Structures are given as structure tokens and as C-alpha cells.
Amino acid sequence: MTTDRPKSFSLSPEVHAYLVAHGTPPDAVQQALIEETREKLGGWSMMQIAPEQGAFMTLLARLIGARRAVEIGTFTGYSSLCIARGLPDDGRLLCCDTSEEWTAIARRTWEKAGVDHKIELRIGPGLETLRALPLEETLDLAFIDADKGGYQGYYDEILKRLRPGGLILVDNVLWAGRVADPDADDADTLAIRRFNDAVAGDERVDVVMLPVADGLTLLRKRD
Fold it and tell me: Residue 4 contacts by C-beta under 8 Å, 6 or more apart in sequence?
């Protein structure tokens, strides 16, 4: 699996580099995390979100004035770093993951970036962590980027706890284009299709799917 190919659809490496350079590009801490993830994890590094997606998520967090956020699927910490940077100094991000190994890289990066005081990491099944949270509409922002078969469950539990006007971001919703390939019938593709169909018809939210990286869906809880 190649690890230097741009994740965004229909972009040449040159256009992708131009796009990143003309937004807010990765700083030294982020670039070091990209390189460490690639060096230590090889092909698994494709699980890391694209730089332009990270910049977009930081901007979104700031735009909606997010103070309380949750992330399902932390990996080596790039997305959580971006979200945390969009929160105020007293903001809080709850990160859920099952890997001590991968999140050890995240912990070091958060500390290096000076955002570790905003982040709580819980190791264990994400659905159990979510269900243990109070049933109160206190979340402002959520990011789902974990096992595809679990997307619907994560979404349902988060939506109950999301304030009106809050946002849920969902990654990999285009799944390298396989969602539109009638011959693709593997479990992950089928799960993402079911999720995409379900949220597209969910009257509790406003929804837009964007061709950012591997597809990013934004869902705003209606007032």
C-alpha cells in the first residue's frame, strides 16, 4: 500500500501540494507526526487524516465555538490535535480508541503541542465509553473515524448528547469510491453505504457530504 499518494479524490500530487500550501499547512509538530506515523506504521499511515482535513476541522471547531468535543478513533493523534487546537484553553476533548500502542504516539504529540491538558483519552470500546456518558445535550462537536460497522451506533449515541446546532463529522464516507461501485460488496463498504443512506434521510440533522480526503460528512443537529 502506497503511503505518499494524496487521499483527496481527483487531485494530482502537485495540485494537492498547492492546496495544502495555500490553506493553513501543517506546522512542525504536525509534520513530525505525519513522518513518525509513516515511518513506524508504514501502510497503516493511510488511516491518518489528510492535512487539509485537519485544518478544516480546526477551523470548524473555532467557527461553532466548540468547548466540548468527542472523537471516536484516535490513531496516532493528528485529528485530535487539530480538534484540540480549535477549542478554547478550557475546552475538553474526549478521545476513544482501543490501541495503547498507536495512542502512545498521540500522547507524546499532544504534550509537545501543548494541548494535552484539553484531552482525555479512554482506551476501550468506543460504544461503551459513549453509553457511559450522561444523557445530556452538552457536546458541541464530534468526529467519527473508527470501525465502519460501528458508525451507526456511534452516531446514534453521540446525537443524543449533542446540543442543537452542534456538529458531527464522519470520515471515510466515500471509501475510495467503493460506495458507488455496484460490484463492491465487502463488509466495510456495505456498512458505510447503510450509514450514508440512513443519515441522508435523518430529519433530525442537516447533512452535507464533501469530497474532502476520503469523504467527510458534516451533520448539524437541528434546533
Answer: 13
**What DSSP character marks residue 9?**
T
Residue at grid coordinates 501543548: 114
> Which percentage of the chain shows pLDDT scores above 90?
87
Segment 77-87 shows an average pLDDT of 98
Under 8 Å CB-to-CB from 28, ≥6 apart: which residues? Answer: none
- Distance in angstroms (rounded) separating the CA atoms of residues 13 and 186: 29
pTM for the whole structure: 0.93
- 210 forms bridges with which residues in the sheet? 216
State the DSSP code for 198. H
CA dist 201 and 178 (Å) reads 21
Residues 142 and 168 sit within 8 Å (Cβ to Cβ): yes
* Closest by CA position to 85, among listed 54, 107, 64, 52: 54
Among 62-66, 78-82, 209-213, the minimum mean pLDDT is found in 209-213
What domains can be seen in the chain, in order of their start residue? Answer: 13-221 (3.40.50.150)
DSSP 23-92: S----HHHHHHHHHHHHHHGGGGGGSPPHHHHHHHHHHHHHTT--EEEEE--TTSHHHHHHHHTS-TT-E
